Amino acid sequence: MVKHIVFVCLGNICRSPLAEALFKDQVKLKGLEDHYFIDSCGTNGFHNGEAADPRTRANAAEHGIDVTSISRQLTLGDIMDADFVITMARDVHDQVIRFCRNEEQREKVHLFRRFDPEDPNSDVPDPWYNDKFEEVFQIIERNTQIWLQQVEG
Ligand code: 4NP
User: Fold this and answer.
1) Closest atom, ligand 1, to C-alpha of 12
2) Which numbered atom of ligand 1 lies nearest the CA of 13?
3) What is the mean pLDDT of the chain?
4) 142 catalytic residue (yes or no)
């Protein structure tokens, strides 16, 4: 069974596209590409159709990571189709939970940093506002590794 994971942030141009790219990279390193469908989207549609923020792409490229996703807004289909809907921050999490139609859908929704030993359940800070692209990269890289272990375990 292919596991379907969708990462969600606000604009789908900074945090969730990077989580998508880093999770895909981890999956590839482990030779598990056939076992996963990995995607991302945003709760607002402000940047629909746009590539990820150039600063996110440039920072990721310094680590050899290609961020290729195109921004799009969350749909109910994302939640129905996914096994894991992973939210990058509490505000996004609350929006997604409110968007869900039933308990089965709500049970799929998880905070990205729920397992982070450094600061569990905290938000991934939004680099769109604070410019901390490298700090955000480190947080997202660490937590995508943890998530892959959790899902595989
Ligand atoms: P993201 O960052 O949610 O990590 O993609 C943001 C990008 C754009 C906006 C908000 C957050 N915006 O409001 O335009």
Assistant:
1) 5
2) 5
3) 98
4) no
